Amino acid sequence: MNNPHHMNPRSLKSRFTTRFLRALTKIRAQKPISSSSPTEIFRRYRKIKVAADKSMAYSVRSRKTWSRAMLWKLRSRSHRRRPVKTKFRQSVMKNTKTTTTTGEDGVGFGVEASELRELVPGGEAMDLCNLLDETAHYIKCLTTQVQVMKKIADFYSL
Amino acid sequence: MSSRRSRSRQSGSNSRITDDQINDLVSKLHQLLPEIRNAHSDKVSAAKVLQETCNYIRSLHREVDDLSERLSELLATTDNAQAAIIRSLLMQ
């Protein structure tokens, strides 16, 4: 599985890399004349960040709640509609039971769990089991994202 | 009356399975965290694991931010040939 010379073309890593490189190429093609000004650098930084999140979310698609939530967020932002996030959250929360996370035996982690819900996309609507499971997958994807972006940045720095 | 409070002890198979499930998931998360500070990584409380998880996710977000900024500056200066080279090198 950890073959250093061949990348499985269907792995998350290679799906993300392909999409992200494609997005980077498009972003670079939009180069204006003053491509090194701080404003341009900031604008490109925003585009790259969105491209990174988009590439990751599309590589996972609707298989995970967090990626669905992220795709939802990205789409509603690009369509510039009224923010529908609250409606989505309310309609999902109606049908989801939230497991209580404070117990009598001292295994209480309600505060930490709600902190985690804010960090994981779509976390507010998940019950505790799903939250923990989705978090593990989200972390794996984030580390892949960081790993690939580092590699690309290092290549560009040569 | 006290059924809700003593749910984790008394009410039988449902919540006992859930508690075990939760402990499994928490330890699964624990294994994903960078083990820099944990001397006795066996007996960390669930709250600590979740706290460390939150910190780890935040630091990953920051890394993505920094890398996006770095890439933005690099894109200003490189030429087109490299993109093809990179793609072929990464996709081997």
From TrEMBL, chain A:
It comes from Hibiscus syriacus. Residues 11-77 form the IBH1-like N-terminal domain. PANTHER family: TRANSCRIPTION FACTOR IBH1, TRANSCRIPTION FACTOR IBH1-LIKE 1. The keyword Transcription regulation applies. Coiled coil: none annotated. Its main location: nucleus. Keywords: Nucleus, Transcription, Transcription regulation. GO terms for biological process: regulation of DNA-templated transcription. GO terms for cellular component: nucleus. It is found in: Nucleus. This is IBH1-like N-terminal domain-containing protein.
UniProtKB/TrEMBL annotation, chain B:
One of its GO terms (molecular function) is protein dimerization activity. This is Transcription factor PRE5. Residues 1-20 are annotated as: Disordered. It is found in: Nucleus. It holds the Pfam family bHLH_ILI. The keyword Hydrolase does not apply. One of its GO terms (biological process) is regulation of growth. It comes from Hibiscus syriacus (Rose of Sharon). Its main location: nucleus. One of its GO terms (cellular component) is nucleus. Residues 57-84 form a coiled coil. Residues 6-60 form the BHLH domain. Keywords: Coiled coil, Growth regulation, Nucleus, Transcription, Transcription regulation.
